[in-house]
Specification:
elongated; Alpha-Beta Plaits; 2 domains; five-stranded antiparallel sheet; alpha+beta; 6 helices; 17% strand
Length: 176
């Protein structure tokens, strides 16, 4: 690879590192073109990109950034998937693909300035998606309000039932 091409590749990697919301690092053990295409398609749907990288170039690109914390993962055939939106979706997609293919092995990850172990990446993949988490949060926030409304309407409801009972007793004819 010519020096100009290397400089260009390092710059593109720096841009990916700067714009990422999270990353998963994997060992690429000879994926076929069809497998890489399938993986890239699933990652694209998850809002991520997949790159097979040279270790020296990714180390240069990560230098003086928080991403440098994962540089010990850059050994052997390396591929990096960068999340541009939802890191949980990226982790799920990579975990599913790695479980179905012996040619990809997770090495670790990066999220919010912290290096992640393989176990942490798998735990991240087990989390519900962003939309589900938001729905759970909204439900949890609305629950006390719903219970308060029910508690406040309880005495009024009891009064209505009592009045209805009195009305029913008065309206039914008395038999002697």
């Amino acid at each position: 690879m010519k020096k100009a091409n290397k400089v260009d590749a390092v710059e593109r990697l720096r841009e990916s590192i700067a714009s990422q919301k999270g990353a998963v690092i994997a060992e690429n053990l000879g994926l076929t073109v069809a497998e890489v295409t399938r993986l890239r398609k699933s990652l694209r749907e998850a809002g991520a990109e997949f790159r097979v990288v040279k270790n020296t170039l990714i180390r240069l690109a990560a230098k003086d950034t928080g991403f440098e914390k994962v540089s010990d993962s850059f050994v052997g055939p390396t591929a990096v998937a960068f999340a541009t939106s939802d890191p949980v979706a990226l982790a799920k997609a990579m975990k599913v693909f790695a479980a179905g293919s012996p040619k990809i092995r997770l090495k670790g990850g990066y999220l919010d300035g912290k290096a992640l172990s393989v176990r942490e990446v798998e735990a991240l993949a087990d989390l519900p998606g962003r939309d589900v988490l938001i729905a759970q949060l909204v439900g949890a926030l609305a629950s006390p309000l719903r219970r308060l409304a029910q508690a406040l309407s309880g005495p009024q409801r009891k009064i209505v039932y009592a009045l209805q009972s009195i009305h029913d007793k008065k309206s039914t004819p008395q038999t002697a």
